[in-house]
Design a protein that fits this description.
There is one protein chain. With 366 residues, this protein is of the alpha+beta class. The protein has three domains: 114 residues, no CATH class; 92 residues; 117 residues, Glucose Permease (Domain IIA) (Distorted Sandwich). The chain contains seven helices and twelve strands. Strands 3, 4, 5, 6, 7, 8, 9, 10, 11 and 12 form a ten-stranded antiparallel β-sheet that branches. Strands 1-2 form a two-stranded antiparallel sheet. Strand 1 and strand 2 form a beta hairpin. The radius of gyration is 70 Å and the shape is rod-shaped. GO terms for molecular function: hydrolase activity. Its EC number is 3.4.24.-. It holds the Pfam family Peptidase_M23. Keywords: Hydrolase.
Length: 366
């Protein structure tokens, strides 16, 4: 390895003594002012090694380098391997007044006995190798750090701090991701539940609407069917008079009727107004009937009897008649106060019913 040429060997006064720039001849030798030359200050490549002198202390560059490394190593933030080699050449006379390396904090332990007992270039090189290879401080350095090449306490601490920070950050990121996923899942579940509820409500509304439409359709169909039925009935049934005025209704109370209640329906009309058969049937009887005056009983095919009372005349007294055939005329015979038709309706078992309701049940308007 290349190194600088040694500086001129001259005698120097003790460190700190006054110097005369002129040539001096003394008891210990002659010395003169030393001026650097181009060769002595030429840049040096590689480590600068100087033979160790006086009690194992190497040349000034080694001492200064060790001092710097010791000062830095005391802080636990660097190693000798992290720093470039320092090439400084100083007069050997200065080294006489430098302290012993073993007295420097953190340096004495770095210098081996072999290095202290050696001399010259080999001792200086051994010292430099020890300084370069050993960590300045091993506090807090683990075996794993040593295996990974991190033998500097400061770097190891920094690496562990960074590792812990990365682990904490990774844990925080993982926790945040889990929380985000949980929140997303809860949000998705809530949205799905909301959509399901909306779909169920919509389905229920559609079902209600369908049922309503179905009921309306059924009602409309029933109404139409009833209208058709009544139309057919109306075609086969007829009102007993074309023009009239209702004067008494079925069940009406009064002293004029022997039973205390009216048993039929009174259609007031002028005497002689034609009376028609409400439906096709058979004339069961025709004649005088006491308080009913002249009466015609028309029996229908189902056994229902229709009584025409207080007639002035009877046109048909027997046989079959059709719907709308004139069978008599309005009169005032029997127990009456005026000309009118007293109409009664009796079921096949003989019970009386409301003629108005019965006529409406046949599709007729009363």
């Amino acid at each position: 390895m290349a190194s600088n040429s040694p500086a001129p060997q001259t005698a120097m006064p003790p460190y700190g003594a006054a110097r005369d720039t002129s040539t001096h001849v003394g008891g210990e030798g002659t010395w003169e002012e030393w001026n650097p030359t181009e060769d002595s200050v030429r840049p040096v490549r590689g480590r600068h090694r100087v033979a160790k002198q006086r009690g194992g202390l190497g040349r000034s560059s080694t001492v200064l380098g060790v001092g710097v490394i010791a000062a830095v190593g005391a802080g636990g933030i660097a190693t000798a391997q992290d720093k470039p080699a320092i090439s400084i050449s100083l007069p050997d006379a200065i080294t006489d007044s430098l302290p012993d390396p073993k007295s420097l904090p953190g340096v004495g332990s770095l210098m081996s006995d072999d290095a202290e007992s050696g001399s010259g270039v080999q001792a200086g090189a051994a010292n430099e190798a020890v300084v370069a290879a050993a960590p300045l401080s091993t506090a807090g350095v683990t075996t794993a750090d040593a295996r990974q090449g991190t033998t500097d306490a400061g770097e190891a601490l920094r690496a562990r701090i960074l590792q812990q920070a990365e682990q904490q950050q990774a844990a925080a990121d993982a926790e945040a991701q889990v929380a985000a996923e949980k929140e997303a899942a809860e949000k998705a579940a809530a949205e799905a539940k909301k959509q399901q509820s909306a779909a169920e409500a919509e389905a229920a509304e559609e079902k209600r609407e369908a049922e309503k439409k179905k009921r309306e359709a059924e009602e409309e169909a029933a109404r139409k069917a009833e209208e058709e039925r009544l139309a057919k009935l109306a075609a086969s049934y007829s009102m007993p008079l074309s023009s009239y005025t209702l004067t008494s209704t079925y069940g009406q109370s009064g002293a004029m009727w022997s039973s205390g209640q009216h048993t039929g329906l009174d259609f007031a009309a002028p005497t002689g107004t034609p009376l028609k058969a409400v439906h096709g049937g058979t004339i069961k009887s025709a004649g005088w009937s006491g308080s009913y005056g002249y009466r015609i009983v028309l029996e229908l095919p189902d056994g229902t009897e229709v009584w025409y009372c207080h007639l002035s005349s009877m046109t048909v007294t027997s046989g079959e008649v059709g719907t709308g055939d004139v069978i008599g005329r309005v009169g005032a015979t029997g127990n009456v106060t005026g000309a009118h038709l007293h109409l009664e309706v009796h079921t096949p078992d003989g019970a009386g019913v409301d003629p108005a309701a019965w006529l409406r049940g046949k599709g007729l308007t009363v």
